[in-house]
Amino acid sequence: MSYLHQARSGDRVRPQLHRDIKPANILVSTSGHVKLSDFGCLKSTTTTVGQAFTWIGTKVYMSPERVRGDSYNTAADIWSFGVVAYECAVGSSPFKVEANLNIFEFLKAIEEPITVPPSVNPYLTDMIYKCLQQQPQHRSSATELLQDSAFFKGHDPTDDRKPLKEWIKQERNNRRAKRGPPSVPRPPAPSGSATPSSFTLS
Predict the structure, then answer these.
(1) Which of 65, 190, 200, 201 sits between 20 and 30 A of 123, alpha carbons compared?
(2) What is the spatial distance between Cα 189 and Cα 148, in angstroms, rounded to a whole number?
(3) More confidently predicted of 145 and 130
(4) Residues with catalytic roles
(5) pTM of the model
(6) What are the residues whose beta carbons fall under 8 Å from the beta carbon of 202, sequence distance 6 or more?
(7) In the chain, domain spans
(8) How far is CA 168 from CA 38, 57, 87, 103, 164, in A?
(9) What is the pLDDT, as a whole number, of residue 36?
(10) Largest CA distance in the chain
(11) For 2-156, CATH number?
């Protein structure tokens, strides 16, 4: 998960608002690299506290301030990241939401306190809570998560690539085995030669 929000404190790069962080936009390469995709909703800001107002993205991963139509900043992406992290750890959404909920019902649902099952790694649980704070100013920044969170401290992201790469390789082999060997097309008959349909029994 650490690939999704790289700390850019030493780079002269304008902060970016992705605005649509969700599982469908997170890709894993065959080499084990996790990459964020689909930058159609991307917005550059002058600072990490720069504001945006546009309603864009996927509702179930939107932060409360975005759902309300308030201005928002990079903390909105941190919320989305927290929802994805919860889903990866638990296998379901942290909120009791349905696709057909109207905005008011949805906002009420995501304002409910979340509960992380005790079976989840306590360091990951702490990180999730830091991401899913209702007030954006109370959420940890990407830099704080990477530098201060116990879940990331002393962790080298490259350590995850080897087992992930092996898992991807195994999955690809399993899918190929299920499909079976590729079928070999029959070569076309030479021009003017007899075909099976032209044979007759004497």
Answers:
(1) 65
(2) 70
(3) 130
(4) 20
(5) 0.71
(6) none
(7) 2-156
(8) 22, 29, 20, 38, 6
(9) 83
(10) 91
(11) 1.10.510.10
